[in-house]
């Protein structure tokens, strides 16, 4: 169980020294508006009654490519200078950022190269291919991914668009936070899944820079609890293993995302594999939105800690919906 | 295949003689606003590109009780006179109307009695029980359902709220049409599943009374193509069998819904069981909304006839999302 101690916000952090500002996120929102979906924030009556809090889902599973990653990728690609852009973009990703970058590159009509772990789900590999890009497969760990991406960059002259440790990517993901504020101005708490921290740092900056009293929690798999351990140790820790069912969260924080998270997050809620699978089922059966396991981790955190949120208006970010048929069978 | 001949609208129909008017639907919208979700209309980029038309989904799977039925049921229950209401309500339904009426009755704190076919999906039986109502089971045909409901009404003095052949129910369902017009004013075509015709007649009246040039198509399972045959014969026909996978559509039209449908619908698109199952899978995998088979019938009709809709803005009504785990396994 998580103590959910209300952490004092570290007011010593100067926002001007962080990788992104509120203004960057606002600029991103304007830049990407025509290319992303303003996803609905959907209230679930059944869970609200069950848990005695007002439960809303920010449905990024309905975003293009089925994940919030479409936001950061298109913001990064549209931000490229016109002399650099034609050489293309390169990245590594366990899946959704790969498809998002392939889509963004095709919108700007530039080449994309993507490195993916060989154990990526079949549907995520297929999504990249649907944009005419053949993924380069690698071993499923951060070092192998980063090395393969660097090699491709050196060979092609393409710009590396990191899946999370990139200011334009972080600013793009932060638009999720702006939309939650617009869609539910009276929100009390937001729960966001954390892998590399691109979404979390963006949402934190979007919300905390304006409304520091709104609680923002991260949700993380126990099998990849590196962010929770990083918060405790004060430095970026690595996941102990790379096989959580929440395949989108099998990575560590970046040096740009970590300082923002450390300064602004209220707490990190760690959830078991069983809780993640149960939440994925709850999404299908009770919420009727398709979430992939990574996309259900924030709901798992609410389910395991609902008593803490009694009487509150809670926004749960459903980060992605690319549940493949193998994944369905496992449920 | 369906010829999709553009049927001349029968202008001889006097709207003032039909069971509901546009005004009834507008009144219903105001009455039920606090008790229903204004469900999102979600565009799907992937299917839009695949079929060269602009595909939007009206996500009534995200409605309370997971189906549009919440609208008509609460409109009917709130419309009851205060001297009649305390004796409660009674109905028969293959599922979603049952849960919707149980919910509506619990909101008004009056008793509800519901008759359901014994082969109703387990999750739909459970949904009714979740509002404290034990379903009365009957044989899976219209005659048995109606007789059991009449008997309960006679015993209890409760008001019968028919699942579709009721003006207040039809008006409530019609609010789906009003919302589509507000959310996508430039819509060219709307596709609506038809069972008893409550949703279809309501949507037709909402749209055609204001914008007769917007095409409204019904979608119906081949195994329950009674509405298509009724349109041809000019009288209400019965389904030939009662076992389509689209369990919400195993019923015939009513004498209040049929005249509106006959006068206003552009055409009825009939789809196979295979097409319905394929569309249910497409909803899960590509749209990332959970649809029950009945809720995917309109998408099946689009998938089978997409060439007809080239270049058009199409709103596909996802009528319900109560897909149970047995249903999932079948996919």
Highlighted features:
homodimer, 331 residues, alpha/beta, Rossmann fold, six-stranded mixed beta sheet, disordered N terminus
Walkthrough of the structure:
2 copies of one chain form a homodimer. Chain A is an alpha/beta fold. Chain A has 2 domains: 218 residues, Rossmann fold (3-Layer(aba) Sandwich); 92 residues, Rossmann fold (3-Layer(aba) Sandwich). Chain A is 42% helix and 14% strand. The first copy, chain A, has 13 helices and 10 strands. Chain A has a 6-stranded mixed β-sheet with strand order 1-2-10-7-8-9, with helices on both faces. In chain A, strand 7, helix 8 and strand 8 form a beta-alpha-beta unit. The longest helix of chain A is centred in the middle third of the chain and has 17 residues. Chain A starts with 21 loop residues before the first helix and ends with a helix. Chains A and B meet through helix 11 of A and helix 11 of B.
Q: Quick recap of the structure?
A:
Chains A, B: Its cofactor is Mn(2+); Ca(2+); Mg(2+); pyridoxal 5'-phosphate. Two copies of one chain form a homodimer. Chain A has 331 residues and is of the alpha/beta class.
